[in-house]
Amino acid sequence: ENIFDRSRMAPKTPIKNEPVDLSKQKGCTPERNPITPVKLIDRPQPDPWTPTANLKMLISAASPDMRDREKKKELFRPIENSEQSDTPDSLQYDMVDDCTVDEFEKQRPSRKQKSLGLLCQKFLARYPSYPLSTEKTTISLDEVASILGVERRRIYDIVNVLESLHLVSRVAKNQYCWHGRHNLNQTLKTLQEAGELQYGELMTFFQHKEQDLEYKFGERKKETIPDSQDRPLLDFSEPDCTSASANSRKDKSLRIMSQKFVMLFLVSKTKIVTLDIAAKILIEETQDTVDHSKFKTKVRRLYDIANVLTSLGLIKKVHVTEERGRKPAFKWIGPVEFPGNTDEPRGRSPTSDALPGTQRGACAPYQICSTGKQRFTRHASFNGAQPYEGTRRKVSSEPNSPRQERQDEYCSKMINLAAVCRQKIEENNTRNPSITSPLSLLPVLGDSDFCVNSLPQAVFPVVQADVPSLSLPNGVSSQALYPSVPAVSKTENGKPTLLPSQPFLCFPSSSLFMLCGSLQENNLRETLPTMGGVGNRSAEAQATVPPAACQKRSSHKCVLPSAPVDDEEPAAKKQTMEQSDVPLSLVVPKKPFESPKAESTPGSGCTSAEHLEDFHLDLASPAAPEAADKESSKPLDSQEQEKRSQNKDPDEPSAGKEHISKENANQPFLPQYLYVQPAAGLSSFNFLFSANQAPGAISLAASQLPAVSVPCVVVPSTALASFPLICSPTITSPLSPVPDGSFSAAACVNFSMSGLASTTPVFIGTTAVVTPKVSPAPSVDPQQPAHPTLHLSPVLARSCGAVKLDSPMCMGHPVTLLKLQQPSSTPLTPKSIRPARHEAFFKTPGSLGDPVAWKKNEGNQTRNGSSVQRRLEISSTSPD
DNA sequence: CGATCCCGCCACATT
DNA sequence: AATGTGGCGGGATCG
């Protein structure tokens, strides 16, 4: 019957269900999917239904909406009659498909074709792995079920697992929001951390002796048991446990089981987990009594979960042959390390402590977004932005959901780091007294939300968005450089205007952290306000702008204000933050505006784009003056430019800068940054440092995170892709505008991240220079070879003497720019970057080097820096 | 025959 | 009460 139906269905509605394409599924590696987002899938195969399937695919690809309409559930079901299809549409499609078609039905769909794994692949094929931040994809369960030709129940199985990994989040009844993999690494990292707590010992235990499980079981259980308590940890993602209300039965299972299962892999040294062990462990937690039936049921569920995870490319089926025989098992083939480490030296930073709850208000500018919705919601809720929030049963409005907490933790860690860095910096820099303040900022950040992610969108205007940009550093730098460096610097010093630049950061990728310290003292305050202004703008921007968003993929960005938030921040800022919308904030100097509010509507989650734009705008404007010079030289990205123009404008000039940067990209200059690339794509962090500030070098502890001195920003990005940006502010004292050589030396950074490995690149820029200390990579993780590689490439960029100082830099992937300074430097342009350079960068981590150019202060300087940087460069190539 | 796991009943949750 | 969710396990397939 099924077959028929399909065929019949097909005619009517192409869409329909379909069993469809399995063919492809197999072929495809799950992993691939991520890569190619949308795609249809498909390879034609001869399947009976294929035709239909293909149609569907096509259709879906073409326009989901259409499909939906057409299909309608009801239609589907009933429809069976018509047999073939003859609808014109179908015909068309058919033609395409034909090849395969053949017979039609023929085979029945074997059980395999109906498997959950396949279904999941089909499901995943419908959505991009890394959706643009701007787009927010909502998933209607009914729709999907009908499209895929399955009962809704099956979709729940898939969605529940995806939700446990935060690839989707429930928005409302029957509706889920697709987030894609942007936050996947972050989620995995969180799970890993939680897993170590819960299962660390246990796994070790098992691993050592698998056989003995049982007995271990008994023993270990104890440990585990406690875990159960923690559930929250696990749940973090979800549930809310919090409070909630509830936990209803449900919460219990599939989602949690999925998270726990993933944790087992992450905690496992071998990365291989056998079903029986997993079942035992999981059962245990739940209950002690293990009866056989229960075990059997658990295993069944694990298969369900495993099928979804397999489709995601996170695990693969393997067999473990033990003495007893071969046992079914699964091997983790997803990312293993995540940048953010747990280990950071957490130190003292008070800030971190603060994070947790406190501040949120203060911090305003920075936010985090995480999965979009959730976080968003929260914030939004204030605004009213998100309607749904409540929908989920559990959703809690509470302040923190477990998930958030987790994130917060993460944030706090980051913050701590930042704080440390700052301190160091400060220490180093004596010159400026003010310095300290920066620290304070950090905390702020923390509390705010940390952003992690979520929304991918580019919310943050701050930086720009494109990824490319990131890579672009060169471009950026270049931009800066060109233009009037000197002038800028001056301004900077003197002015506060510049200030802005210092402080914040932006990141695009999903989660990012930024640390910044701004050095400047004075400025900070000023900056703050600016930031606020920025924020507002962003908000505004959001409303207006959409376009930008597309470009960037990164979703989250955060900006921190380096400045101390504290002081007064403009109310506006806070507001903005609260608004939530976005997390981002940027700093922009510029005028403050009114804050828009976040408009976030629930629906549109994606405001980010807008923000970005705003961002740009802002940047532009500030930059303008300086920019003008710069601009003259280059054109901006069109988009950005446009935006800018639109928005604000005045600054057109600024735009110029950006352009320059892009153009420059090619050029070799770029001085001040280091770029570190992360190894593969996994998670990684990116850092950018600006050199300016710290004259001193920074050293980080090697192993751990280190400290970075300087203003740094660290961003972990989950997805590599993204790119982080960073800005540095410059710092220096107000004066020294040109640090010249002296400065250059200043910063040194070592990174080592332990875990990192990641992928992400880091940039460090300083005006000053960085000291080359870097070699961190190796140190980092010895364990894994892979990771270890961090590459730092310093980019030298051009020397630009001018550059130097402060400057904020920014990059983001897509968009990025920060503007920090207005006066001084300009940051870069984001977009511009991307193109050419971008490629280069991205391609190989090591290779990158991009030069980033920027200018920084006016100054000059830099040259030295460049030389230094070169040295620094570690692995990657540097462009020069 | 054991490994997989589809299918869908039905309880509980939410509307 | 209707509808959404999703636990659960019988039993069909696969290998």
TrEMBL record:
Superkingdom of origin: Eukaryota
Subcellular location(s) of the protein: Nucleus
GO cellular component: RNA polymerase II transcription regulator complex
Regions of compositional bias (Basic and acidic residues) in chain numbering: 65-77, 640-659
Polar residues bias: start-end ranges: 81-90, 859-880
Domain E2F/DP family winged-helix DNA-binding: 111-180, 249-334
Keywords of the record: Activator, Cell cycle, DNA-binding, Nucleus, Repressor, Transcription, Transcription regulation
Major place of residence: nucleus
Recorded coiled-coil stretches: none
Record GO biological process: negative regulation of DNA-templated transcription; positive regulation of macromolecule metabolic process; positive regulation of nucleobase-containing compound metabolic process; sprouting angiogenesis
InterPro entries: E2F (IPR015633), E2F_WHTH_DNA-bd_dom (IPR003316), WH-like_DNA-bd_sf (IPR036388), WH_DNA-bd_sf (IPR036390)
Gene Ontology MF term list: DNA-binding transcription factor activity, RNA polymerase II-specific; RNA polymerase II cis-regulatory region sequence-specific DNA binding
Cited PANTHER family: TRANSCRIPTION FACTOR E2F, TRANSCRIPTION FACTOR E2F7
Family affiliation: Belongs to the E2F/DP family.
Protein name in the entry: Transcription factor E2F7
Gene, per the UniProt record: E2f7
